[in-house]
From TrEMBL:
Protein name: Beta-ketoacyl-[acyl-carrier-protein] synthase III
Cellular component, GO annotation: cytoplasm
Localization per Swiss-Prot or TrEMBL: Cytoplasm
Domains (record comment): The last Arg residue of the ACP-binding site is essential for the weak association between ACP/AcpP and FabH.
Gene (UniProt): fabH
MF GO annotations: 3-oxoacyl-[acyl-carrier-protein] synthase activity; beta-ketoacyl-acyl-carrier-protein synthase III activity
Top-rank EC class of the record's enzyme: transferase
Organism: Candidatus Danuiimicrobium aquiferis
Amino acid sequence: MHAQSIGILGLGAYLPEKVLTNFDLEKIVDTTDEWIRTRTGIHERRVSEKGIATSDLASKASLEALQNANLKPEDLDLIICATITPDTLFPSTACYIQNKIGAKCPGFDISAACSGFPYALTIANGLVKSGMYKKILVIGAEVLSNFINWKDRSTCVLFGDGAGAAIIGEVNNGHGIIATYLGADGAQTEILKIPGGGSAIPLTVETLEAGKQYVYMEGKEVFKLAVRSMCDAIEKVVELGGLRIEDIDCLIPHQANIRILDAVTDRAGIPSEKVFINVNRYGNMSAASTPVALYEAVKQGMIKKGSNVVLVAFGSGLTWAACLIKW
Ligand code: UT7
């Protein structure tokens, strides 16, 4: 007989200490604090020191999650790392993390951009439910600062570095992950991507000079699709879980832009006091945004035992995803 309820046993987060404010950015590119705040809601973001890789941030978040779950690295059965800024193209960042935290289990990465954490949570939920594994470490971690063109004002003001981690396993009946929903539209691969460095456009002097190694985004198009796909994901996951929108106690959305979040919650009919926001402090941390937000919402008491929590994200791919969790 396999587990009836699968949920989160412990959470962890790690943010680099170095803060980069909008005023700091005014000195680097032609922008203003006022433009960034009014168009995005971002006031500051964290950036890693030189030489720090995604697995470094991920390992710190993972060790805290293990501690909060009262577990040791050797108790883990699997590591799944969601990232678009891996330490290397291969091996996987999960393998670097395994070594750094002293775990012995298998591990792999998934690529679903900003939707990576709810995607990974969905995989972990299925694997524990099947009885294959008991304890899975799920991580969303990014060092985006190494993949941003710091001369491009339309993207460099948006992103930040960070990591969040969760341990997935059996929880008390009636709690845990109630429903998950994943979506993707491969017709939209061109509007948000790092074009170079893969097999399609390997890095050469020419592609490096053309900046193909950096994040490219058609912001307006992404904005429109973000609102539509997040609203869709919220509605679907709530319906799959047999609840109504009014039953949501806390919404943990991907933190890309405050205007996107306002539009989503407005359209979905969720009051703003139920929505957790930290985009002002960290910017868009891609796969790290939702686990860090979840960690902070629990820590600040916004999520309590019994709360119905919806995690929702969208990102490059395009991908979108939602998880409904009874805390
Ligand atoms: O995690 C997934 C990812 N991404 C997103 O969710 C991002 C979605 N998109 C957005 O959040 C918004 O589209 C942006 C914040 C990226 C841009 O906001 P916008 O209201 O769509 O602005 P815009 O791109 O239409 O640009 C308006 C103006 C332009 O000038 P002109 O052509 O009107 O003269 C830009 O050149 O603002 C200019 N601009 C800037 N000005 C000052 C663009 N970036 C900046 C900047 N500082 N940093």
